[in-house]
Amino acid sequence: MYDSHYKNILAASLDITDLSFLDSIVGEEEFKSLITGLDSQNYSPGVRLDKNKIDTFDLSNIKNHKFCANLHVHTNASDGLADIDQILLSALKIADDNAANGNFGFLLGITDHDTVENIQKALEIVTRNSLKYKNLKLVCGVEISTTATDFSNQNKTLDIHTLLYCINPFEKRLTDFLDNKMKLKYEIANTTLKKLKQTLSELLGSLNLSLSLDEAAKIHPMITKGQDEVSHPLKKYIFARTLFSYYVENNCKIQEILKQENVDKSLLSYEKPVFKYKSMFNNERYFYIYKNALEKYLNFATNEKYNIILPEIPENIEKYLLTAKDICENSHPSKSNTPSGFSDFTRILKFINTLEYGIISIAHPARINTGYVNSDTNTFFDEFWKTYKTYGKEKAYAYEKYYGSYSGKKHYDRLCAIDETSKKYSLAFTGGIDSHGYGVCSRA
Questions:
Q1: What's 374's DSSP letter?
Q2: Nearest Cα to 385, choosing from 180, 190, 209, 151?
Q3: What are phi and psi of 411, to 5 degrees?
Q4: Half-sphere exposure (Cβ direction) of 421: Cα atoms closer than 13 Å
Q5: Rg (the chain; Cα; Å)
Q6: How buried is 101 (Cβ within 10 angstroms: 0-12 exposed, 13-18 middle, 19+ buried)?
Q7: Coil, helix or strand at residue 165
Q8: How far apart are alpha carbons 11 and 136 in whole angstroms?
Q9: Both 37 and 137 in a single domain?
Q10: What are phi and psi of 216, to 5 degrees?
């Protein structure tokens, strides 16, 4: 049996005496064996029809039973929409269909941000229904976000996400670390919001607008869980919420049109334009983009009858929003200061080495913003992989070569440098879609 010691440890936590109930649970030995034979087709539902848009798969690999793994899946314990039952059933459907056609079932990695809540539940469900899930292989995982400040010629902090696989989600050192990380991150978010309220009090008062983390969670659900990076989510929130209040809630003309057209009140919430026109939000000019998205959204909501054109953002509001931007960004780590609650990349690698179980894969490495480093891409990634192996040691095992949700030329341009520079370290490859929706076949 693969990983008998690992399974004995899990069985004790689950109060199980028959290890055959854990046949679907994947430990490090089996994980390494399983991923060795997988390639891009196995990690993708089909051919990507548009590299600039996510979820444009033609689903051909599902139909031909080649899609058999997704090692990057989120649930509603972090920023996914689905509960753990929905994710398991989505993977099981593909697993059973693959097996019925003589192929490998499905390899599923649950990798919520900074929490093991739902992987613990998944273990309970699968091990107590082992016959039902016989064609599924479940990997216990977690995605730990980190920041890096010490690379050569680095001018801004880098966000690096580590996928930790084959963990013991009941290991106290791990759960205590994650719980404390979330607590500290929540405190940063709460403190930042208080500063926003105080500094913007005059503007907020003029718009009869109040702010809360619960409301911010409409646009970034992890903010109230202490799993988000604070600056970016709160910038999006304060920009969108303020402009929605100004252009919609405090605009008599718009209110009259919405009333006249009997627009459903459930459609009139600040986050709706962001989700409907998500592809528009691709750079730092967020509040200007939001105004344009809101304009499109209002025309959509009123069936294009009025050709609504919103005026430019008033200078005084723009001034407040730029101040809010600075407040939010001060909550993010800098080269000289990493607040408690944010995890330093090398320290996390060292910490993982103290855990009894777990191996690491770097998530979506082409999303690391090499524009924040004054070195060419190959030079940076050569140093990156050296750092990864130096501090991660044997647990620094892989990187997410087959990531299905890249978008934009800059990501694909980095992939050649990533693959070339990683060769000397003999890293293995993992893959996934970074699923956040109601199944394992798409990102959204």
A1: S
A2: 151
A3: -65, -45
A4: 22
A5: 23
A6: exposed
A7: strand
A8: 18
A9: yes
A10: -60, -30
pLDDT in tens, 176-197: 999 999 999 999 999 999 999 9
> What whole-number distance in Å separates Cα of residue 310 and Cα of residue 295?
6
338 within some domain: no
Mean pLDDT of the chain: 94
> What phi, psi does 303 have (nearest 5°)?
55, 35
Tally the C-alpha atoms within 13 A of residue 157's C-alpha that lie toward its C-beta: 24
Task: Please tell me the distance from the alpha carbon of residue 105 to that of residue 109, in angstroms, as a whole number.
Answer: 14
Q: Which of 316, 394, 399, 303 is nearest to 355 (CA)?
A: 394
360 and 421 housed in the same domain:
yes
The DSSP line for 12-77 is HHHT---GGGGTTEE-HHHHHHHHHT--TTTT-SS-BS-TTSSS-B--HHHHTT---EEEEE--TT
Both tokens of residue 376? 């060419």
Instruction: Please identify which residue in the block is written with the tokens 């499905």.
Output: 106
How do residues 330-381 score in pLDDT, each as one tens digit? 998 888 788 888 899 999 999 999 999 999 999 999 999 999 999 999 999 9
Q: Which residues contact 160 (CB under 8 A, 6 or more apart)?
A: 145, 146, 147, 148, 345, 362, 368
CATH number of the domain bearing residue 142: 3.20.20
- Residues 18 and 135 occupy one common structural domain: yes
For residues 152 and 273, membership in a common domain is answered with: no
> What's the whole-model pTM score?
0.91
DSSP state of 247: I
